[in-house]
């Protein structure tokens, strides 16, 4: 295989690879290959620099990275950074079989996707977007700030992962997966996320009833009675009911939105809410 033994990659090369991955990771998906086209496009300049323009090594490298690949894009930068290091070693003459690179990618894309989806999109993004919504409903410009802040932080976290993967290699990813730190991070973020969702639900979910009953000449206001037991009991019950329905897969989110809308309209028409 042709190679350029004198070629050394720079930090700029790694950063440019990440930028290409960041822009393309989710725009070329297909059921046949998912993110592999974006992966190969991101690796293209690296492979060309290592093996030479138009070389057989470049063609073989692109073919390697067109194998099926699908992961969470930000955490997946760890995999790309590491495969860049492996390609650099392979181009310099080290005996690294093609199967080693492809099996490394396929073996880690699932675990890192699980971590990234649950931690980034399942928890951290939910917190940022919930904060954004709470400010937006009051007309505060900070609502837009939290949306932008999440994207900016996400970008630089991925960039850090890319350079870490390149500098530390395969051992760094295995250390992350095998240590208990990642589980502690996920658990901590989940607890924080539940706390934030509880606080935001109490402030943003509005549900009251004007119902009153006349008992032995005394007027009993249902809402005041409920507030005397637990303030915000109706909003809490509504949130828990929706959570239960989603948790048990009783309804999809779209179905629940339609049901909630119908219940609110009917309740308002009959003076229940």
UniProtKB/TrEMBL annotation:
Entries under InterPro entries matching the protein: GatZ_KbaZ_carbometab, PTS_IID_man
Any one of the GO BP annotations: phosphoenolpyruvate-dependent sugar phosphotransferase system
Pfam families, per the entry: EIID-AGA (PF03613)
Keyword Transmembrane set for record: yes
Membrane-related topology note: Multi-pass membrane protein
Keywords: Cell membrane, Membrane, Phosphotransferase system, Sugar transport, Transmembrane, Transmembrane helix, Transport
UniProt keyword annotation of Cell membrane present: yes
Principal location class: membrane
Regions that span the bilayer: 141-161, 182-205, 225-246, 253-272
GO cellular component labels: plasma membrane
Localization in the cell: Cell membrane
Record's protein name: PTS fructose transporter subunit IID
